[in-house]
Amino acid sequence: MHRGDNPQPGASIAAAIRQAWPDAFIVGLVYNAFESGVYAAGGPDVCHAMPYPTAGLGPYLTRLAEVRAATPFDWFIPTLDAEIAMLAGASEELAELGIGVRLPDPAVLARCGKAQLPVLAEHCEVATPATAVARDVGEALEHAEAAGYPVFLKGPFYDAVLVHNPAGLAAAGAAILADWGPPLLVQEPLLGTEFNLMGLGDGKGGLLGSCALRKLIVSDKGKGNGSVVVRDLRLDEITRRVMAATHWSGPFELEFIRDQRDDCYRLIEINPRFPAWVGFPAQLGANFPAAWVEWMLQRPVRPLPQPAPGRFFLRHQIEVSGDMGQISALLDALPNSTNHDLTSNSISA
Amino acid sequence: MNLQPYIAPTIRRVCQTTANPQRLGRVPVMDAIDGVPVSRLIETHGSPLFVFSEANLREKIRGVRQAFESVYPNVTFAWSYKTNYLNAICRVFHQEGSIAEVVSGFEYEKARHNGIPGNQIIFNGPWKSVESLRRAVSEGAMIQVDNRDEIVALARLAEELQTSIAVGIRVHVDTGTHAVWSKFGFSADDGEALRMMTWTRENTRLRIRGIHCHVGTFMLDAGAYATATKAVVGLAIAAQEAGGALVEYLNLGGGFASHARLHGQYLPPEQATPGFDDYASAICSSIKQGWPEGCPLPKLYLETGRALVDEAGYLISSVVAVKQRRMPDANGALAAYGKGGPTVASAVRAYGKGGVANGLGSTRRNAVVLDAGINILYTTAWYQPSIYPATQTAPGMQPTTVYGCLCMNIDVIREEAALPDLKAGDAVVMHPVGAYNMTQSMQFIAYRPAVVMIDPGRRVHLIRRREVLEDVQGPELVPGHLAETEQPTAAIGRHEP
Amino acid sequence: MTGETDLTRLEDLMLNERGFVFDPNTGESYQVSGTGLLCLRALQRGASIDEVVAQLVTSHDVERITVRCDVDAFLWDLKQLGWL
After folding, report:
1. Full-model pTM
2. Which domain holds residue A287?
3. Distance CA B374, CA B442 (A)
4. Residue B91: exposed, middle, or buried by beta-carbon count in 10 A (0-12, 13-18, 19+)?
5. Tens digit of each residue's pLDDT (9 = 90 or more) over B307-324
6. Which of A5, A37, A74, A98 could form a disulfide with A1 if both were Cys (CB 3.0 to 4.6 A apart)?
7. Quick one: A167 and A279 in the same domain?
8. What is the domain count for chain A?
């Protein structure tokens, strides 16, 4: 639910659903009491802390059941890569808890994963940056030596670091392995402009809608802090091929670089979820989260309008305010209605 | 008056990285193993205590057999002695139809002692003494030759006995996803193995009847077996065409992952570990696709150990002390998944604001000392066992460092396990610990604990008693001039000639 | 705040029934265990250490020596924080 630096999609998804259904009851699931979206106006009605996906499916489901008992909800939209990796294939367990969910098929998810992307891209006849899979830092060093520095070093779920020499690679590699485990991906860095395309797959090879952006402002973490809507038939064609090959069901984001050497798009990554900028097209009449909810509820979904080229967003940070008592409530081990207001002897006396 | 359970007064600083008590998940209580209360096991057999579930052992071996037999006509499992050679454990597998796989003369003796005839023993390993080879040959064991020196030694033996000896040949393969185990056998990738097969045929009385390839350990990618199997099948065909061997069996070794968790493994075992069906499909479909039509399919041997015994094993241990460990402020950039972000405290400190003295200025982590150490949990070097409280405790989980009992700083069983606030005397259960910890444990500082097995009728059997002084010093000899026990004198540095 | 020191007074601490403690002087937050909360509240009321220990012993299944040992360690932590 965080929306500061390095924003996550959760808060935007909640806002987009709220936009379509102002009275929706939205439960925010957070990994940290300091996620800013918890405290945003119009945000979730209630929030609960969750175990990390690395803790395992069992503890995750136990906690979901506990949360659902305290604050009933019907549908669940996981928003982060590691959650989706853990939950894909667990639809039945979730259904037993009374939780509706639409998740990608585990096999399809694996095909779209970072390590297997080159195979899928070849199948779809889409160019990708040269990528080598390394089991450890030693192998990553060998790949980087062969490819020539600089290279991008990536983790299986998250993190991408541009490294310029073996020392930088060793440090970044150790950090990524410590956080995410193997494999490491060594990827050629491409010079060019970054494009992102968000869409909703209908599970039959088609699309319920899409929106393509070109990044205008890139943060030092590589995040798009400003982007403009574009329309390029080549992007649509690539997306069509990826959909046809995977029969992707649900939200996704394709990340591209338009290579300045040949002006061709190269597919960098497929994210199996809404991007953090999902709130932007919602403002332009293409409410992807709302369409996804309709789809989950098996209601008819009209194809989403394509936002007009030339519309842009700029990321605009604001301060949301909260009270330490709210932090305390999220720190509670069990969801309950205990009063978390803070008082002091001297102030209350 | 109803007395509440006591938890000590503690205070912990809250920072962004710790601002989620759920982050490690809630660990369930494990107050019984196979229906037998942990408290009763401790009462009867002491703490620490290794516990094996016979039902789980049988379930696993039946599961893996079912997975392979449903897709392949002729498959035999061999119990990997080195994974756990407690006789009771071995005998469960033998009862379930497994033959034996041994890697030394000592293990060979154990298998024979457990009633396994020589011709049902697969004899592996990079070193086999001449005496052990002699016995294995005379009893018809399936020797898997590892290196040229062993081939020469066996050739000499065959000459001496004026007989031919049927053997298998160990090879290694680059699967592309895991490090190549080139320590073992001959390369199947560069022609070395094929050359040795034809050389052996032309120059010795040895007859190569099988190819053995164990790709590695804890293989989380079942696809590696498909690559290895294709290479082995290709080698068998090439060897036959070159007149080097008539391959009757393939041995794809072991290496199937258990539900243990590697250090640094992000996704938990239930997601990361392939099922037996995945391994069976990778291996068996590769043989069926590659094997020449019209030829009978080769016999398939498998030697999986860890995946069959790991989850049957538990270690009960007790908390002997509780500590608070001072941790440096967490670094890190990722608030998602709780990977950090600058801490609140560091931001405060940046303005030179004081008041927070040492100690609680840094974050603290619960720590407990257990009565078991890493000398009996050798696998904790690579894996992190789950640690469950054995009694109902406070609902909140805290990241807890779990120290072993050894007087050594490296004796850390888990750097960060989710546990409730524990107190001295509370029992915990570690799992899975059934693979390699028996065979690789060392006697160090304390006696090694007893091992019990719970049978499917919930009866508890002692299968190895706790060590006593005589077990440790029995093999020792004291020279005569040191035999007299004297009180140490105050003299320092005087050595009598 | 007293005029002589910028250290937090015990009675200034803001706390709630879940043992969450906010130090308005430093901006730091803390979580105390249930028994820790009991100690803090008793100390805020001006109770002596012996009284705190006695209160814990009568309400919990524990030996006095254990409580005394833990409470003294807890008080040491509070001293480190400048609260005592």
Report:
1. 0.83
2. 191-314
3. 9
4. middle
5. 999 999 999 999 999 998
6. A37
7. no
8. 3
